[in-house]
From TrEMBL:
Organism: Lithocarpus litseifolius
Entry protein name: RNase H type-1 domain-containing protein
Highest taxon above the source species: Eukaryota
GO MF, one example: RNA-DNA hybrid ribonuclease activity
InterPro entries: RNase_H-like, RNaseH-like_sf, RNaseH_domain, RNaseH_sf
One matching Pfam family: RVT_3
Residues annotated as domain RNase H type-1: 12-84
Gene3D superfamilies: Ribonuclease H-like superfamily/Ribonuclease H (3.30.420.10)
Amino acid sequence: MPPPVNMAKIKFDGTMFFKENKSGIGVVVWDENGLVLGSCIKRLFQAYSAMEIEAMAATTALVFSNDIGVRRAILEGDSLAVIKAERV
């Protein structure tokens, strides 16, 4: 589903490449019309745990979307623990 008017949807995901002992991050940002506002990928030259990579992916998504001018958004990812994380 697209986000409400005047909002963006930010989808992030992380992955692990076990054979190469590396990780990766992907981010896509859409507007309310379903048009892609921007996307990025990031290769990490180290393997991380699933929780670590998802947390890094969420952080990358927020920084990237801010850099392209997104101010109001819905953040969507696979890790409920990362989405529900509280500040410490």
